């Protein structure tokens, strides 16, 4: 029944993962042409989409542009705002107020001339690292946008990502994928999965649409992992002994003033047994507490979140969910690949979820073979690549906890030697002697760039103890660059509009495509 | 712009308007809006460029009258130098604004802060409660100008759709001072125009867009006139 060629792809499950992947595939395959590879998506009509606020990485701009989505339309329909990084509050310790920024833009490229060793030697004076190397810390603090109304669509004066309403985002992708890119849509529940003699998926059986066959399957069914986990029996590796959070409680907070300012970066505030995210959409804030139920009761966790929100939390509904951190032992098996929660989940500390969906979609688009014999090799490459990316993502998130000096039980347990991946321990040890450099990031598909590590390490107060500082004698050059950063910062503060002001203008005028 | 208010026969009954042939209000403006109808006239005197409005990000067609912000090389020694006066200058301080998006009716607004507006000298705007003949004439002209602007907007929209606009910084090299780049200008991409398929090109012809397109292209030679004036 199966042809040797791969002519059809069936995506099981909607949401951000399903619709983003289906849209990418259809766009890349040119599925509007009936002779090309066809893409179909099955989504359950019974599972409601939940509009949580989520953060992306700057990669989302290229993704949306390549799909042919208008940036102004995206911002309007998804209550989107511009995200210029993350502000980490009270991560260093709980005894006195502290904060640092993990940003997307530096003024100078650190692989050309690395300012970090000079900052560590005090050449930037008292300035925090992020402010010394980037204009974006102050821009974000002032609630300014990364671009102007005269900027081209998807182009920024400063690098930026988005905050978006994931429910609305899935709706936008859905209508775009169906209307503009030629994705076929079936609203039905998958009740069974049928495999052929070699263990490849042949078809899925649905409650209202009969049997739907395809040559290749993408599992976007969420935590359940209907195809890869349940039907193909690929196991799950928990990382609960490395990252200790296991629950989240979320609340949507309306703005007291609908025309008031909007945060220009994600706020992440450390708490007794986890941390709280605070994401400013255009119409409300999305706030949630990711915590370890072994270190704090659910009741106390909800109270912690309500205390953080303050009086505005009165009368608002909290939603609790259990999260299982970990990943599948394989992401691609035979003719099925899992993307999104069905593949892996880590706590949303560095907004890796959507970013890794995009990355998986990109690799699938490029690597899906034309013929069935090619699957085995593609599977190997894909699994190696994404094991690497998830492992690095886990290490990077864990690093935030390792660098903290907080002393509650949750934080002490996070620094227990047995909970630290060997790869991370080795890297951090090497950074005691050697400042972070491009040689630490040899992989093309490194999920987090060198600059991200610098912002977090030096923001958290990591001090290399065994560096021979005489190796970094270019103090005058470094000071000139630090000075330049301050000049650019002052200039940009005058140039850039308030985030809310720019959004209002975008709703009215849109962005030019040139 | 903040002093722009709709004319009101009660409130503005005793106002008078003087006419200033020197167009002093343009003294510090290096960009003056031009309508597509006047491209051919303007092109032999002034470079026509497309710039994004700082408030809306929307493109406007403008005559370039200076080589840096706040500089108008065509305004010197108390008067307008050029042989061609862009129409936009002649309507000041009156502006016709659309009453509602998509509607056809316009409201006549006035810049109350303009030195041309007073109570002593000039021509009366109102004759009792009614608009004076002078005001009627000026209002009609202002509405006609607003309509030309709308046509100019559709012209620009078509250029954008056909990807015929490209960003181009103008290299300015004066005898005195270092060379610099005047940024933020967009011009018609001649190569892209020549690559258009026949159907799109004929579409431009039917829209009456070819003459202004070539006028705008040729007008760029006038950057040299600006440089001469600046020396």
TrEMBL record, chain A:
SUPFAM superfamilies: FAD/NAD(P)-binding domain
Superkingdom to which the source organism belongs: Bacteria
Keywords: FAD, Flavoprotein, Nucleotide-binding
Binding site for FAD: 14-17, 190, 341, 350, 354
Gene3D superfamilies listed in its UniProt record: FAD/NAD(P)-binding domain
Active site positions, chain numbering: 83
Residues annotated as binding 7-chloro-L-tryptophan: 83
Pfam families cross-referenced by the UniProt entry: Trp_halogenase
GO molecular function: monooxygenase activity; nucleotide binding
Cross-referenced InterPro entries: FAD/NAD-bd_sf, Flavin-dep_Halogenase_NPB, Flavin_halogenase, Trp_halogen
The keyword Nucleotide-binding appears for this protein: yes
Protein name: Tryptophan 7-halogenase
Organism: Shewanella salipaludis
TrEMBL record, chain B:
Organism: Shewanella salipaludis
Superkingdom assignment: Bacteria
Protein name: SapC family protein
Family matches, as InterPro entries: SapC
């Amino acid at each position: 029944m199966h042809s040797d060629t791969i002519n059809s792809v069936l995506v099981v499950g909607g949401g951000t993962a399903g619709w983003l992947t289906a849209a990418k595939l259809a766009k890349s395959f040119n599925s509007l042409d009936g002779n090309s590879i066809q893409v179909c998506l099955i989504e359950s009509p019974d599972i409601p989409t939940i509009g949580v606020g989520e953060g992306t990485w700057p990669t989302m701009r290229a993704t949306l542009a390549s799909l042919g989505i208008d940036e102004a339309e995206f911002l309007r329909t998804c209550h989107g705002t511009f995200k210029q990084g993350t502000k980490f509050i009270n991560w260093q310790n709980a005894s006195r107020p502290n904060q640092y920024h993990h940003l997307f833009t530096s003024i100078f490229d650190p692989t050309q001339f690395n300012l970090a060793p000079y900052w560590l030697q005090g050449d930037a004076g008292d300035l925090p690292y992020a402010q010394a190397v980037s204009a974006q810390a102050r821009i974000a603090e002032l609630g300014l946008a990364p671009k102007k109304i005269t900027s081209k669509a998807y182009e920024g004066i400063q690098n930026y990502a988005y905050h978006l309403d994931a429910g609305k985002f899935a709706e936008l992708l859905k209508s775009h994928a169906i209307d503009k890119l030629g994705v076929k849509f079936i609203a039905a529940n998958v009740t069974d999965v049928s495999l052929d003699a070699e263990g490849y998926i042949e078809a899925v059986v649905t409650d209202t649409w009969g049997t739907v066959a395809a040559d290749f399957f993408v599992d976007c069914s969420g935590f359940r992992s209907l195809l890869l986990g349940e039907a193909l029996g690929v196991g799950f590796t928990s990382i609960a002994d490395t990252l200790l959070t296991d629950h989240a409680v979320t609340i949507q907070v309306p703005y007291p003033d609908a025309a008031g300012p909007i945060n220009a970066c994600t706020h992440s505030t450390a708490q007794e047994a986890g941390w709280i995210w605070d994401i400013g959409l255009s119409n409300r804030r999305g706030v949630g507490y990711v915590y370890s139920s072994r270190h704090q009761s659910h009741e106390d966790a909800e109270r912690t979140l309500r205390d953080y929100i303050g009086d505005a939390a009165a009368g608002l509904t909290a939603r609790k969910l259990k999260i299982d951190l970990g990943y599948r032992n394989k992401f691609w098996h035979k003719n099925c690949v899992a993307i999104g929660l069905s593949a892996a989940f880590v706590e949303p500390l560095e907004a890796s979820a959507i970013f890794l969906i995009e990355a998986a979609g990109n690799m699938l688009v490029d690597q899906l073979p034309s013929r069935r014999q090619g699957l085995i090799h593609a599977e190997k490459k894909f699994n190696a690549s994404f094991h690497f990316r998830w492992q690095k993502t886990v290490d990077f998130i864990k690093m935030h906890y390792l660098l903290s000096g907080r002393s509650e039980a949750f934080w002490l347990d996070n620094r227990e030697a047995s909970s630290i991946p060997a790869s991370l321990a080795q890297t951090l040890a090497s950074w005691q002697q050697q400042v972070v450099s491009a040689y630490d990031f040899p992989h093309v598909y490194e999920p987090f760039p060198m600059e991200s590590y610098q912002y977090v390490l030096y923001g958290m107060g990591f001090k290399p103890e065994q560096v021979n500082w005489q190796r970094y004698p270019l103090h005058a050059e470094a000071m000139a660059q630090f000075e330049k950063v301050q000049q650019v910062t002052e200039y940009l503060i005058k140039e850039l509009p308030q985030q809310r002001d720019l959004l209002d203008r975008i709703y009215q005028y849109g962005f030019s495509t040139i | 712009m903040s002093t722009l208010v709709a004319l009101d026969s009660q409130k503005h009954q005793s106002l008078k308007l003087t006419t200033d042939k020197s167009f002093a209000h343009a003294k510090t403006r290096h960009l003056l809006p031009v309508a597509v109808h006047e491209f051919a006239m303007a092109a032999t005197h002034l470079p026509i460029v497309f710039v994004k409005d700082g408030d809306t990000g929307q493109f406007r067609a403008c005559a370039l009258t200076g080589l840096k912000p706040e500089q108008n090389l065509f305004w010197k020694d108390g008067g307008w130098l050029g042989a061609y006066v862009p129409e936009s200058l002649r309507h000041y301080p009156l502006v016709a604004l659309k009453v509602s998006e998509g509607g056809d009716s316009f409201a006549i607004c006035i810049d109350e802060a303009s030195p041309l507006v007073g109570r002593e000298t000039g021509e009366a705007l109102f004759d009792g409660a009614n608009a004076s003949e002078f005001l009627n004439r000026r209002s009609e002209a202002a509405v006609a100008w607003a309509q030309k602007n709308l046509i100019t907007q559709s012209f620009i929209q078509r250029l954008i759709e056909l990807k015929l606009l490209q960003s181009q910084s103008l290299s300015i090299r004066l005898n005195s001072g270092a060379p610099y780049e005047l940024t933020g200008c967009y011009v018609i991409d001649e190569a892209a125009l020549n690559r258009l398929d026949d159907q799109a090109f004929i579409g431009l012809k039917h829209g009456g867009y070819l003459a202004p397109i070539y006028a705008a292209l040729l007008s760029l030679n006038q950057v040299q006139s600006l440089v001469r004036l600046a020396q």
